[in-house]
């Protein structure tokens, strides 16, 4: 099926010229007019010219992408009137005008199933009745069926190509949306990675400056930490670019303790509950990273507590401090709507069925709470 669809996509859709060669089926009527075999040949010639002109007009209007609703219908109605007049007046080979009328009806009415079905059924029945009136009952069913089928084939062919075009446009929109989602993921990851890393480097650089005059060994140790953090940041950025980075909650908790200690903030980290699935742990790792970075940057806190509490179906993470009650430079009290990092975390957790809440904790301090559901199958694999 996929191969057939690919071949269809490579084919050019029917255009206005596709349906014009079908007018050649009226060659026999033109020859009869030229030989004078029909009564009132001038009237027949005028009717035939009007039929051809109306057929071309109807086809062109029906295939016009900017077509109006009434113009193609008006042309089709006029074409039907001329067709009935010619076949009733002359009969015989002029019945071949009906398959052309059916084609035009299929082009104009292809978007309306009930109207198209009624029109094609009427045309097929009319051909059968006219053949019976003119005592030409040979192959009446085949001709009547062929008349109705010609319009059905034209409508089906055009609908197929239009559907393929819509599918192609939808596929392009989905590809564009995927690119936008990837850009958002990358910008969010880059913000979280660089924001945390720069905070660690700044804090440890300040520690080096403070310790260097009185404790050179301790200053050297902090400088070595800066080097290690920089190398780790380079690795994480490469992994984030390739999309393979998996956060570790345990690692982030250890980094949080190191960063808070280097900043002179007393740390209390508690973790309980069963092992967490990798995806859940990765998301919570991002929460710890962003939350602790904001504590160090903006809170001026003396103490920070981090609690991870696992339950059978959910996991609860809470980060609190006793600082100024500010979670980020642009955070708004009472929600996680301010900072870019908090916005990104809110989107991440919401996509996983979780929630994030952040705001001042009483008169002093800031509180960040994240909750995530735990998938039973993933929890079993993690255990």
Structure in words:
This protein has 383 residues and is of the alpha+beta class. The protein is built from 12 helices and 5 strands. Strands 1-2-3-5-4 form a 5-stranded mixed beta sheet. A hairpin with a 5-residue loop joins β4 (355-360) and β5 (366-373). α5 (97-108) packs parallel to α7 (140-211) and α10 packs antiparallel against α11 (340-351). It is rod-shaped and about 120 Å long.
Helix content percent band? 55-70%
Strand coverage percent? 5-15%
H/I helix tally: 12
Instruction: Report how far the terminal alpha carbons are from each other.
Output: 43 Å
Q: Calculate the mean pLDDT score and round it.
A: 77
Principal-axis shape equals: rod-shaped
Write the element-wise H/E pattern from the N-terminal end onward.
HHHHHHHHHEHEEHEEH
Task: Record the SSE blueprint.
Layout: H1 2-10, H2 27-35, H3 41-62, H4 70-90, H5 97-108, H6 113-133, H7 140-211, H8 216-242, H9 249-262, E1 266-272, H10 278-299, E2 303-310, E3 314-321, H11 340-351, E4 355-360, E5 366-373, H12 376-382
Parallel strand pairs: 1-2
Antiparallel strand pairs: 2-3, 3-5, 4-5
Helix pairs in contact: 3-4, 3-5, 4-5, 5-6, 5-7, 6-7, 7-8, 7-10, 9-10, 10-11
Task: Provide a concise account of the structure shown.
The chain is an alpha+beta fold and 383 residues long.
């Amino acid at each position: 099926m996929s191969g057939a669809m690919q071949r269809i996509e490579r084919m050019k859709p029917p255009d206005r010229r596709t349906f014009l060669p079908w007018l050649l089926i009226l060659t026999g009527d033109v020859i009869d007019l030229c030989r004078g075999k029909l009564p009132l040949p001038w009237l027949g010639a005028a009717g035939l010219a009007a039929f051809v002109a109306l057929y071309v007009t109807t086809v062109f209007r029906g295939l016009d992408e900017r077509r109006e609703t009434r113009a193609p219908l008006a042309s089709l109605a006029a074409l039907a009137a001329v067709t009935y007049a010619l076949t009733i007046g002359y009969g015989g080979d002029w019945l071949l005008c009906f398959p052309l009328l059916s084609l035009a009806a299929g082009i104009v009415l292809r978007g309306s199933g009930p109207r198209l079905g009624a029109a094609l059924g009427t045309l097929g029945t009319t051909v059968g009745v006219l053949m019976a009136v003119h005592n030409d009952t040979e192959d009446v069913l085949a001709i009547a069926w062929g008349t109705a089928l010609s319009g059905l084939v034209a409508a089906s062919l055009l609908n197929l190509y239009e559907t393929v075009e819509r599918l192609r446009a939808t596929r392009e929109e989905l590809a564009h949306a995927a690119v936008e989602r990837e850009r958002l993921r990358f910008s969010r990851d880059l913000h979280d990675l660089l924001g945390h890393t720069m905070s660690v480097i700044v804090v440890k650089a300040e520690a080096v400056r403070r310790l260097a005059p009185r404790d050179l060994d301790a200053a050297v140790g902090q400088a070595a930490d800066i080097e290690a953090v920089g190398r780790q940041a380079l690795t994480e950025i490469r992994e984030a670019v390739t999309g393979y980075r998996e956060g570790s909650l345990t690692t982030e908790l250890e980094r949080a303790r190191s960063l808070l200690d280097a900043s002179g903030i007393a740390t209390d980290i508690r973790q309980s509950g069963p092992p967490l699935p990798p995806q859940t742990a990765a998301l919570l790792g991002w929460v710890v990273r962003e939350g602790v970075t904001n504590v160090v940057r903006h809170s001026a806190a003396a103490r920070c507590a981090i609690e991870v509490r696992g339950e059978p179906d959910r996991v609860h993470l809470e980060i609190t401090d006793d600082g100024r009650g500010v979670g980020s430079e642009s955070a708004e009290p009472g929600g996680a709507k301010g900072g870019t990092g908090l916005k990104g975390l809110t989107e991440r957790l919401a996509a996983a069925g979780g929630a994030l809440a952040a705001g001042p904790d009483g008169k002093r301090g800031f509180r960040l709470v994240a909750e995530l559901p735990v998938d039973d199958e993933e929890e079993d694999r993690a255990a």
